[in-house]
Design goal:
By secondary structure, the protein is mostly beta strands. It is built from four helices and twelve strands. The strands form two sheets. The protein has an eight-stranded antiparallel beta barrel with strand order 1-2-3-4-5-6-7-8. Strands 9-12-10-11 form a four-stranded mixed sheet. It is flat and about 120 Å long.
Length: about 425
């Protein structure tokens, strides 16, 4: 019984993280171990069976790469006879392939072993183990394994506890500096900086466009080389009228315009849009508007949309709140854009038969369509209804909350409208 308790303690230790799990760099190890070996209760030799026995052994292991390794081991096991005869000893030796998992300490192993007992035989084994770091070169070995006897088809088990000395460490490769900016590659966030460029602690160019203004405050980071800039890194005289941006009240004066000390045209421009009155076809343009060459506001087509989402009760196509403001908002949008049309899409939750859910989802879509027609005065030919059943679930988790949000209709309508383009 005590030996079984020892085996259980080793098994528990394998999944415990109480020791620091540093990244091991070792290539090889040698170790010794003690183990509890429990033969199959139905295994008999010369009319006797064996209880759990204690064993001592040695192993040599190696790492092939980050994940794969192997080892050879030898163990001498003292087996207690259930027939009150003298204890027997057994020799076990063999080879294991080992696969190390992501933490580089926990591993799975399997291999071929030969067990010399009163009768010899070959076995296959499979197990789980862990190397705990307990010193600079010392590893605590913990394993559990199962063995299958090829000759008699019995299954034995064992638990191992040992100590290994690791060696063959590889010195870490020093980080490089590919772009030669003085910042190592492992810290360099801009690894391709031009040679000779002035960089910050992250390895990035402190003045990308070379205008003398650091990137952190440069509002125009791509100024052409040789351009005179202001404190923000932008062209000192944006409209090239000879008046610096900080004094220019009319920063977008057309090229060639004669300006005064404040950068505004000395010719008459009543609405100050940058287009002289003599050619201005829109004389009262707001100052906020961007204008074309004729002095008129510029418009752009902007897409606008409105959506409608309604939830339904379980196994129901009844609209719970037909006065919900969302219906009026949707109807107002369609009335504001009378050329729009929309399809109302009905959906169902996953429970129930697929054909029933398809019919129920269509009923829900038709109910909302009829409400928009009857109560909110939307023309019938602008609305259609479609049912999708349970084919487009928003949430597939099969919970009550998922079923609630899947019982729904969705509708969306899109239109375009003209909006003024504002000055920068």
């Amino acid at each position: 019984m005590k030996k079984l308790h020892i085996a259980l303690a080793v098994a528990a230790a394998i999944t415990t993280h109480g020791v620091v799990a540093d990244e091991p760099d070792y290539k090889q190890w040698v170790g010794g171990f003690a183990e509890v070996y429990k033969p199959d209760e139905e295994k008999f030799f010369d009319f006797t069976s064996y209880d759990a026995g204690l064993g001592l052994g040695l192993e040599y292991g190696f790492r092939h790469d980050e994940h794969w390794g192997g080892r050879v081991e030898y163990s001498k096991i003292n087996l207690e006879s259930d027939a009150n005869l003298d204890d027997d000893t057994a020799d076990r030796f063999g080879f294991d392939a080992m696969y190390f998992l992501e933490d580089d300490l926990l591993y799975i192993f399997g291999g071929i072993k030969h067990l010399n007992m009163p009768q010899s035989g070959g076995m296959a084994n499979l197990g789980l183990g862990k190397h705990f770091n307990v010193g600079e070169n010392l590893k605590l070995i913990t394993e559990v394994a199962a063995y299958h006897d090829f000759g008699q088809a019995y299954n034995d088990v064992s638990a191992k506890l040992g100590l290994a000395y690791a060696f063959g460490k590889t010195a870490p490769k020093p980080p490089g500096d590919a772009d030669q900016d003085g910042i190592n590659d492992n810290l360099d966030q801009c690894p391709n900086t031009a040679i000779g460029a002035r960089v910050d602690s992250k390895g990035c160019n402190v003045d990308l466009d070379g205008d003398g203004v650091l990137n952190g405050v440069d509002q125009c980071p791509n100024t052409p080389a040789g351009t005179r800039v202001d404190a923000t890194g932008c062209n000192w005289d944006k409209d090239m009228d000879g008046v610096g941006n900080d004094l220019d009240r009319c920063p977008d004066t057309p090229a060639g315009t004669v300006v005064g000390a404040k950068g505004c045209s000395l010719e008459i421009d009543s609405d100050q849009d940058g287009v002289l009155d003599t050619v201005d076809q829109c004389a009262d343009t707001p100052l906020t508007d961007k204008v074309d060459a004729n002095g008129c506001s510029i418009f752009e087509e902007v897409e606008v949309r409105e959506t409608l989402n309604v939830l339904f009760g379980n196994n129901s196509d009844v609209i719970q709140n037909p006065d919900d403001p969302k219906f009026q908002e949707f109807a107002d949008f369609m009335n504001r854009f009378p050329n729009t049309q929309t399809a109302i899409e009905g959906h169902a939750s996953a429970p129930g038969r697929a054909d029933y859910n398809m019919t129920l989802s269509l009923k829900r879509a038709r109910a909302v369509r009829q409400l928009l027609i009857d109560k909110y005065d939307i023309a019938a030919d602008r609305l259609s209804a479609e049912g999708f059943g349970e084919t487009q679930l928003l949430d597939e988790s099969n919970t009550a909350e998922a079923h609630r949000i899947n019982r729904r209709i969705e509708a969306r309508v899109t239109a375009t409208q003209k909006e003024k383009v504002l000055r920068d």
